[in-house]
Design brief:
Layout (H helix, E strand, L loop, with lengths): L5 E8 L4 E4 L5 E9 L2 E4 L4 E4 L3 E8 H10 L5 E14 L5 E14 L58
Parallel strand pairs: 6-8
Antiparallel strand pairs: 1-3, 1-7, 2-3, 3-6, 4-5, 7-8
Length: 166
């Protein structure tokens, strides 16, 4: 939606992402990121931790499966998305609400780690296709469409090795 505010959180996963499926078969992964701000106290010349933010996150469809296969407890991640408030009523009649992050982007932080990225072989799926819920065009992950020899995302006509194709 236009006008939504995106937020970015950097922190550590407190548990492995939990992959579940809706009644219609759509995968959803839920995970929590713990982010603790640090500041340097010039008087004591020490680093001090602030209050930890625990942000519940959710990601849907093929993206959910990729997250569940790639991320594990303790990993430092960067998550970007939109805050969403959900309201519900308990069986006892108490009104409850929660705020969670609907994930648009997530990945490992490479400041103190390395990662080997492997392009997913999944295309569209029977439960709606891409992250946005629209029809899959075959051009997943915002990769350029095509297949020419000059296309760095192409899987035809090239072999993957340690050298980047561009």
């Amino acid at each position: 939606m236009a006008g939504e505010t995106l937020i970015t959180i950097v922190g550590n996963l407190i548990a492995d992402p939990e992959l579940r499926f809706t009644n219609s078969g759509a995968p959803v992964a839920n995970f929590t990121v713990a982010s603790t701000p640090r500041s340097f106290d010039r008087e004591t010349r020490e680093w001090k931790d602030g209050e930890t933010l625990f942000m519940r996150c959710s990601v849907w469809r093929d993206y959910a499966e990729n997250v569940a296969e790639s991320l594990t407890k303790g990993m430092r991640v960067m998550v970007q998305g939109r805050l969403q408030q959900r309201n519900w009523e308990t069986p006892q009649g108490e009104k409850r609400s929660t705020v969670e992050l609907q994930v648009d982007e997530v990945g490992p932080v490479l400041r103190f780690a390395t990662a080997k990225v492997q392009r997913s072989q999944r295309g569209g799926s029977s439960y709606g296709g891409n992250q946005g819920g629209g029809q899959s065009s075959g051009a997943d992950f915002n990769a350029p469409a095509g297949g020419s020899q000059n296309d760095p995302w192409s899987t035809s006509g090239s072999s993957f090795d340690n050298e980047p194709p561009f």
